[in-house]
Amino acid sequence: MQELRSFVVAVLTGVAAYLHPIANNVFALVWLLGANFIIGLFCGMWVYHEKFSWRKMWQCFYEAIILFGVVAFIYIIGRLQGNHEGAVQCVSMIIYAACYFYGVRILRNLRDMAKDGSPADALLGFLYHVLSLEFTKKIPYLYQYINQKEEATDAVDEGVTNDNNKEQQ
To answer: So what's the pLDDT on residue 167?
Structure first.
């Protein structure tokens, strides 16, 4: 058992040393996902009167594993290709994108937790509105992608509705 423990520690230490150049990015991602989990938990309990959900906790954990895996694999592939700086820059962009999307979710939960009509509610509502709507219009291709996705969903829904109407007639 001691040999297994030593082996696991040695492997984890080696991986941590290899990923050390992106340690600050990974640390930021840990804080971001931790804040998302804690604020989402409190919002669900206080605002929506939900009980603790193991399913939601595991979903948050799986999202974290996926994000850490993507970040690690991109860095490893970039480094193996000899483009260390490009790999670190790509990882940084992924972290910034995660900060945006999770930040909007965190702001929404904080806004829901703020007392209606309070200055905190006004500030959080304004920040949520700016980040979730106006800011996305300035990101190239993102706003277009979101609209195309909604149009495709609407088209599928209309097709299902039309098919159901034909069957009923």
So the answer is: 46
- Where do the domains of the chain lie? 2-131, 139-169
Alpha-carbon distance of 11 to 94, in angstroms, equals 26
The DSSP 8-state label assigned to residue 134 in this structure reads I
* Phi and psi, residue 9, nearest 5°: -65, -40
The enclosing H or E element of 165 equals helix 142-168
pTM of the entire predicted model = 0.74
Q: Under a CB-based contact definition with an 8 Å cutoff, are residues 43 and 112 in contact?
A: yes
| Alpha-carbon separation of residue 155 from 90, 116, 127, 143, 159 (angstroms) | 35, 37, 32, 18, 6
Of 39-43, 69-73, 128-132, the poorest mean pLDDT is in 128-132
**In the block, residue with structure tokens 């109407």:** 165
d(CA 95, CA 89): 10
Backbone angles phi, psi at 82, to 5 degrees: 85, 15
